[in-house]
Amino acid sequence: MTKTDSRIKCVAACLIMTITAAAMAACGKQNKTHINLLEPEEPEQKIVNLFGPMEKTNPDADNVARSAFDLTIALAEKEYGVVVEYKTYTADNHQEKTYDDVTLDRIRNDMDDLYLLNPDTIQILGEEGRLLDLSVLENTGNLREVVKMANTVNGKLVAVPQEVVAYGMFVNKDMFDEYDLDLPETPDDLLECCRVFKENGIETPIGANRWWLENFVFAQAYAELYNGGNTEAEIEALNRGKARYSDYMRPGFEYLKKLMDSGYIDAKTALVSEAIEGEGPDFLAQKTPVVMAYWGAANSETAYGRLDFNLNVIGFPSSLGQMPVVSVTGYGISTSAEHMEDTKNVLNCIISDEALGIYAEKNKVISPSKNVETDCIPALKPLNDKIQDNIYVLGSNAEMNVEQWGNTCLIVRELLNGATVDECMKQFDKLQDKALRK
């Protein structure tokens, strides 16, 4: 090897050592200052999409029901690190799609994870197989049997509520006292009260809307069925066609027709009126002594929570006296929920005894949990006493093969629109015959 070759090799070796040292220094500096060339990805946020109705409210009012729900959702969000995103809909008038119509469309098109469902849509979607069997949730074990019965379709528990919704007659006790009238127990009692009110210048004794008149029918139709000690056998007879729904319904429809013909209910106004919006102002102004509403309306400032008169909430008149009507709504999970596990966790949390206790305390409602007691305001005591004594009828019962709540509501609207009682009964017969052919 020549001296020149040796010199070249030496220079090359020095260059390699210099580059290596520089690289090592650079690496050491990089490690020391924690410089990263690629930014770490943010953890993906866990979302649950909830679809439910939003009650129309006075912007300055405190929506107690919504606040109670928010508290329970906050528990679930904290427990499972999720965010529940609300999507809502409320019809502006009778010409728009109903909430039920919109719900059916959304769930059939896999648009959300969790839905607040009315009784008729619970039964429809349960039969279509679009709702998850919620018996897999641990906390369904705390639910009252009546709640599970009302929302079980084809052997599957497809919806669970945060409250048992009880309907009653909201009466202005001061107006009854003014004319020395006892609160009505039977259908004839109410007719007599209406006669007295009408003769004393009360134009419309019963304020009504297009949604809740079916409660008069249910109270008369099923008072004996649910309180006569033979409930299962009577339902079985209906499901087999040995008894007819129309025979149960006829007395209630004939009674409604009498109230309408006597001018005690304004049928034309009721047909196009939304719940509370139509009859509410006259009731608040003490022009109408009787309206119908759900339990929570007595607690909320958005409805009848703050009044200038003595409010009593009682059951609807029946052969067995004042009869509350219970309708079980519920939250259901789509079988195609995009965020299935997170949705199940959220729902399981909000039906825990802890969450249901918070909801019942805040909203003063009847809890679906057998472990949570209900504390109610004085106005609701007459209705609550009946329910605590297990005196009530179900306006929704998925064990019946003809859906009750929605169908009865629609057929009552036909009565309001001029149909005869016989024509309405034919509608029930058609529904029952169709169910028997399945």
Mean pLDDT across the residues is 86
Question: Into which percent range does the helicity of residues fall?
Answer: 40-55%
What is the string of SSEs from the N terminus onward? HEHEHEHHEEEHHHHHHHEEEEHHHEHH
Question: Which segments are poorly predicted (pLDDT under 50) over 5 or more consecutive residues?
Answer: 1-38, 55-64
Strand content: 5-15%
Overall shape: globular
Structural class: alpha/beta
Q: Number of helix segments?
A: 17
Give a written overview of the molecule:
- It is a single chain.
- This protein has 438 residues and is an alpha/beta fold.
- The protein contains 17 helices and eleven strands.
- The chain has helices spanning 3-33, 64-80, 99-108, 119-127, 145-150, 173-178, 187-199, 214-227, 231-240, 245-261, 267-271, 280-284, 340-350, 353-363, 381-388, 405-416, 421-437; strands spanning 46-53, 82-89, 114-117, 152-153, 156-157, 165-172, 290-294, 311-314, 325-327, 330-333, 393-394.
- Strands 6, 7, 8, 9 and 11 form a five-stranded mixed β-sheet that branches. The protein has a four-stranded mixed β-sheet with strand order 2-1-3-10, with helices on both faces.
- Strand 4 and strand 5 (156-157) form a beta hairpin.
- It is globular.
- The termini are far apart.
